[in-house]
From TrEMBL:
Protein name according to UniProt: Mitochondrial cardiolipin hydrolase
First and last residue of the signal peptide: none
UniProt GO molecular function: RNA endonuclease activity producing 5'-phosphomonoesters, hydrolytic mechanism
Organism name: Papilio machaon
Domain Phospholipase D-like: 75-202
GO biological process, one term: lipid catabolic process
Alphabetically ordered keywords of this record: Hydrolase, Lipid degradation, Lipid metabolism, Membrane, Transmembrane, Transmembrane helix
Family note: Belongs to the phospholipase D family. MitoPLD/Zucchini subfamily.
Annotated transmembrane regions: 6-27
Coiled-coil portions: none
Phylogenetic lineage: Eukaryota, Metazoa, Ecdysozoa, Arthropoda, Hexapoda
Statement: the UniProt record of this protein carries the keyword DNA repair: no
Keyword Membrane: yes
């Protein structure tokens, strides 16, 4: 009888040890998988007036500069969501990418300056018409931010959240005719600070009304 009790106890301990080993191995594999998919992003994209090294683009029908191609690459990166806080958006390549993201099911939120929402070529009306939430605030103060957040609301550990911020407005002039800069980073504390700023504005600003 005592033998059976001892054997049962040892069997239970062995089972628990084996189960713990399986769980440990699972989380180790999961950690390696996450680390292999998640990548640190730290890049500064510099736009220079008069750049002539144009190349065929994967994201545009036109030839573009290497800086423009890198910018479009990151803009096309969302797998879950993109939150945009931008003074003005008129560039057709940017507009086309945002529409494609929308139709792919990527969640888009846009905050834009109230006056610039009405400017010639603004894509705010087009996005709002197709169901993208757009917000503004009629004020004498400019909404002059220029940043966007990628995959910051995703629960998937395999996705890398990042922010794009700098001097760049998303216009033809800025993307092809100005000296501009965009910093792209996945640095967690910076991404979180931008996300907090965006959420505060999203609450403060109101749904756009083009009527």
């Amino acid at each position: 009888m005592a033998y059976k009790v001892i054997f049962g106890t040892l069997l239970g301990i062995a089972s628990m040890t084996f189960a713990s080993h399986l769980i440990y191995n699972f989380y180790q594999r999961r950690k390696k998988q996450v680390n292999s998919h998640r990548k640190d992003i730290n890049e500064v994209i510099i736009f220079s007036y008069g750049a002539h090294d144009l190349k065929k683009s994967k994201y545009s029908r036109c030839v573009v500069t290497p800086s423009m191609e890198r910018f479009l690459y990151y803009l096309n990166g969302p797998r879950h969501n993109i939150d945009i806080c931008m003074y003005i958006i008129t560039n057709s390549d940017v507009s086309n990418i945002l529409m494609k993201l929308h139709y792919r099911g990527i969640k888009i939120r846009l905050i834009i300056d109230a006056d610039m929402a009405y400017c010639t070529g603004s894509c705010a009306r087009k996005l709002e018409k197709h169901g993208v939430p757009v917000r503004w605030l009629k004020s004498t103060n400019l909404m002059h931010h220029k940043f966007c957040l990628i995959d910051t609301l995703a629960d998937d550990e395999l996705l890398t959240p990042y922010v794009m911020a700098g001097s760049l407005n998303w216009t033809n002039q800025a993307l092809s005719g100005n000296w501009e800069d965009v910093t792209v980073t996945s640095q967690k504390d910076l991404v979180q600070q931008y996300q907090v700023a965006f959420e505060k504005l999203w609450i403060l600003f109101k749904p756009i009304d083009f009527t």
